[in-house]
Amino acid sequence: MRAIIAKRVDSGTPDTSEIRDLAEAAGYTVVGEVTQSRRADPALQIGEGKAEELATKAAETDATTVIFDNRLGPYQTYNLGQLLPEGVEVIDRFTLILEIFGQRAQTRKAQLQVELAELRYELPRAEAKTSLAKRDEHPGFMGLGEYDESRERDIKDQISRIKDELERIEQTEEHRRERRRDSGFDLVALAGYTNAGKSTLLRRMAADLDVDENEDLHRDLESTAESQDKLFTTLGTTTRRADIEPRDVLVTDTVGFISDLPHWLVESFKSTLDSVYRADLVLLVVDVSEPIEEIHEKIVTSHDTLYERNEAPIVTVLNKIDQVSDEELAEKREALSSLAPNPVAVSAREGTNVDALLDRIDDELPDWEEERLVLPMTEDTMSLVSWIHDNANVEDVTYGDDDVLVSFEARPAVISQARSRASELQATAPESA
């Protein structure tokens, strides 16, 4: 697929770097670009002269697609299509993002979220086509095809059904998270913009166990959390156990943020962020090699998103320090001190300072508590002792003639559960002679 990039800005110089990255992530080969600085043209988005230049370039490069970094209305899309060579498709930024999401969606949840976003994108266009056709008493809208009021109703019904199914999936995932937490796991979430290196960092932190959101135990380490230099490699969530003794820590990698997303698209993927909102700690990963203005803007936007529903502490991780000098890193640390007063600087690719990050995670997570339980010697006692070994850091076990003394440290939730099970043993234990 050969694509030409087009972008219009009100003023200044158009930056096409991100839309190029997005196009390449979708599998396009960019063979040219057309940019313009002027107010939007209602009919074509760009001026008529630029539109003709775009058509000429599409013919010369044998392009199959024109990708606008601007949002196109159905009227603009149609008019541009009339000017371009036959067979050349016109799409905008948000259609491209949905295309990428569709390519990456592997799980039922991700596929539903893509479908929901597509329907939310289509709904206002269906509503506009219906209202304009009614107003003009016209059987179609500027050659865009017949309008159908039932299509608008169908879209709304489909949106409702998908939201209901996503809610059921989320309830199942929430129950799984609660079981993990009750079993002594601390939950850590990776957040941040796409291509910041979250998946690479997860692979660096992972121990020998992979826990996928769709299965309780999944051991195929190579098929998850791919580390590739492309956008949206991670669309669903991938969870792995991190090696932070004596804790059992599960780290979840989530879909990356991306700039300038419309509300309907963010809303469609909101349930993906539930792994972030329900975590005990959030690691906000940023690419420190980017210009300081971009880093600042991304951290502010990320904070706005995360603090909306998140109560867990947030630790900023400055990734890709292998791509900057010590002097540049120090300057950026200082410039970001008000937003990220105590960040951890790492290179996920090289493994630099990952141990320091693991130590920081241990410091930030809820403190473990110490406990000593005296358990009566019953048929079920060894089962509880084994459970404590699995879910806590056992310091000592002393076996007496009639009881067992267990000293351990663990999360408060594990201690509470151990006390409850110990009380049940006491209640069922036979009285001493």
TrEMBL record:
Lineage: Archaea, Methanobacteriati, Methanobacteriota, Stenosarchaea group, Halobacteria
Known cofactor(s): Mg(2+)
Coiled-coil ranges (or none): 102-182
Species this protein is from: Natronobacterium haloterrestre
Keyword Nucleotide-binding on entry: yes
Quaternary state and interactors: Monomer. Associates with the 50S ribosomal subunit.
Functional note: GTPase that associates with the 50S ribosomal subunit and may have a role during protein synthesis or ribosome biogenesis.
Binding residue positions for Mg(2+): S199, T234
Gene name per UniProt: hflX
Subcellular location, record wording: Cytoplasm
InterPro entries xrefs: G_HFLX_dom, GTP-bd, GTP-bd_M, GTPase_HflX, GTPase_HflX_N, GTPase_HflX_N_sf, HflX_C, P-loop_NTPase
Protein name from the UniProt record: GTPase HflX
